[in-house]
Write a structure and sequence with these properties.
A hairpin with a 6-residue loop joins β3 and β4. The radius of gyration is 39 Å and the shape is rod-shaped. The protein has 2 domains: about 60 residues; about 170 residues, Up-down Bundle (f41 fragment of flagellin, N-terminal domain), CATH 1.20.1330. The strands form 2 sheets. A two-stranded antiparallel ribbon has the order 1-2. It has a two-stranded antiparallel sheet with strand order 3-4. The chain is about 70% helix and about 5% strand. The protein is mainly alpha-helical.
Length: about 280
C-alpha cells in the first residue's frame, strides 16, 4: 500500500466503526437506564407496534371491567330497593289479611286502609326516586353494558332490564285503586299483593342473574388484562443479562476503536520522515 496524505482510509474505517459502536453503546445505556428495550421506533418497529396494540387492548379492558362493575352497582341498587318493597308488601299482606277476615270496626278498617295506602305511595316513591349516578334505576328500558378488548370481535354488550316500579306496576301487578275499606276490597287487594310479591321475587332473581353475568364479565376482562400486560412486558422489558453483556462489549470496542483511530491518524505522520 502506497503512502498518501489525501485520504486516510484506515482512519475512515476506524471512525465509521467507532461511530457504530458509540451508537450501540448509547442504545444499550438507554435500555439499562429506562428498563425498556424499545425506546423509539428505530429500536424495534414491529415490537413497538405490537406493544402499542396491546396497550390499547389493556386500556379497553380496564374500562370494560369498570363498566361491568358500574352495572353491578346499578343492579344492586335496584335489588336493595326491591328488598324494601318486599318488606312493605309483607306488611301490606298482613293488613289485607286482617281486613279481609271481617270483624273490624269502621275506625279499625279505616286505619288499616290508611296504612295500606301509605305503603302503596311509598312503593311508588321508591320507584321514582331511586337512582344511580343521577339516572333513574327503575325503567322498562334495557340498559346496555359494554365489555370490550378494543376490537369489534372482542366486544360484548350485556343488556339488563330492571323494570318499572309504580303503584300500577309492582312486580307486574297493579295496586292502583286497591283498598281495605271492606272485606271484599281487602280480599281483592290481598290477591293483587300476592301477585306483586311473586313478581318482585322473580324480578330480583333476574337482577341476580344479570349481576352474576356482569361480575363474570368483569373477572374475565381483568384476567385478560393481566395476561396482555405480561405479554407486553416480555416485549418491552430490558433483558438486563444481555444488556450488561452488550455494555461490556461496546465499552471495550469503544476503547479499542479510539485507540485504532489514533493509530490510523499517526500513520500519516510517517510521511514527514520521508521529507526529512
Amino acid at each position: 500500500m502506497s503512502l498518501s496524505v489525501l485520504n486516510n482510509i484506515a482512519a475512515i474505517y476506524a471512525q465509521n466503526n467507532l461511530n457504530k459502536t458509540q451508537g450501540s453503546l448509547q442504545t444499550t445505556l438507554q435500555q439499562l437506564s429506562s428498563g425498556s428495550r424499545i425506546n423509539s421506533g428505530a429500536d424495534d418497529a414491529a415490537g413497538l407496534s405490537v406493544s402499542d396494540g396491546l396497550a390499547a387492548n389493556q386500556a379497553a379492558l380496564t374500562q370494560s371491567a369498570q363498566n361491568a362493575q358500574n352495572g353491578v352497582g346499578l343492579l344492586q341498587t335496584a335489588d336493595g330497593a326491591l328488598s324494601q318493597v318486599t318488606s312493605l308488601l309483607n306488611r301490606a299482606t298482613t293488613l289485607a289479611t286482617e281486613a279481609s277476615n271481617g270483624g273490624l270496626t269502621t275506625a279499625q278498617a279505616t286505619a288499616a286502609n290508611t296504612e295500606f295506602q301509605s305503603i302503596i305511595t311509598e312503593i311508588g316513591n321508591i320507584g321514582s326516586t331511586t337512582n344511580f349516578n343521577s339516572n333513574a334505576v327503575f325503567s322498562a328500558t334495557a340498559t346496555n353494558f359494554v365489555v370490550s378488548d378494543g376490537t369489534a370481535s372482542g366486544t360484548t354488550t350485556i343488556a339488563a332490564t330492571v323494570g318499572a316500579l309504580t303503584a300500577a306496576s309492582v312486580g307486574g301487578s297493579s295496586l292502583t285503586g286497591t283498598s281495605l275499606t271492606s272485606t271484599t276490597n281487602a280480599t281483592a287487594a290481598l290477591a293483587a299483593i300476592t301477585t306483586a310479591v311473586s313478581g318482585i321475587s322473580a324480578q330480583r332473581g333476574t337482577l341476580g342473574a344479570s349481576i352474576n353475568q356482569l361480575n363474570a364479565a368483569a373477572s374475565v376482562a381483568s384476567s385478560e388484562n393481566v395476561n396482555l400486560a405480561s405479554a407486553q412486558n416480555s416485549i418491552l422489558s430490558t433483558n438486563y443479562g444481555q444488556a450488561t453483556s452488550d455494555l461490556a462489549k461496546y465499552q471495550v470496542l469503544s476503547q479499542t476503536g479510539i485507540s485504532a483511530l489514533a493509530q490510523a491518524n499517526s500513520v500519516q505522520q510517517e510521511v514527514l520522515k520521508l521529507l526529512q
